[in-house]
Amino acid sequence: MGARGVVAPFALTALGLARVTEIDSLCLLSIISCNASASATSQLALAFGLGVRVNVGGAVVATLAGRFLEVPGSQIQALEAVANASVALGGVQKGQLLAGTLGPVVSAFIPIAGPLRGRSPFAGVRFRRDTKKAGSLGLQIDYAPLEVTAGSCAPGCRPNAILFAPGYEASVRPAWGRVYGVVGFLLAGFYAEGPDRGMAEGAHGGVGADFYSGRAMWNLNARLLWLQRNSGENVFGVQVGVSVSPKLGGNRRQ
Fold this sequence. Notes:
This protein folds into 2 domains: 7-26 and 41-87, no CATH class; 97-246, Porin (Beta Barrel), CATH 2.40.160.20. Helix content is 2%, strand content 66%. The chain has one helix at 25-29; strands at residues 7-21, 40-56, 60-70, 77-87, 97-113, 116-118, 122-131, 135-148, 160-172, 177-190, 198-213, 216-228, 234-246.
């Protein structure tokens, strides 16, 4: 958001290749011989988080971000701080992104299947960025207080998660606002110790509408969520939310 300014907050998601070598920690601490074998494997790694970008002039950019990182299928789960500085060469290229907006969002989670329930409403922030095409790019980040209702740790497990849900919004634009359908992937970061620590992956899809009211824009949305926990259990639910943000004009000016 605010990419042309000096300071610009941003959200990030990454998919990369990890070279993983795992050794039993007891073998590393043992003073006697240990028969644990170590083999390196190549696996996909996932990460998501938030950061801030500082633009220095027209060519120098520095970023600082915090993110969840996980290599599914391994024991690698971490919270990281990532810093980067870069210098751009050549002229500035015009992209497909237009104006953007953001605002607070409150939502309720209605469980359908699986052992997770919401302990209270979710609170977060919703981003939207228009493009030169018919659709928009959306992102909703929620703080989700959850409760595990089945399994070995129920009913004592009350994990909190950060839900990260980017999506593509295909829309139509009547005079009073916008109606859209959205689809995207879903990541949930569990930062506390417990059986869910790390990341859960899934997808989301649904519908929503923006209503213009003066300089404000109200949003109502409902979407189906699917998450797969570290234990392999699938969780399904419907998330219904409302948010408000500064209005984006219907004339799609840059």
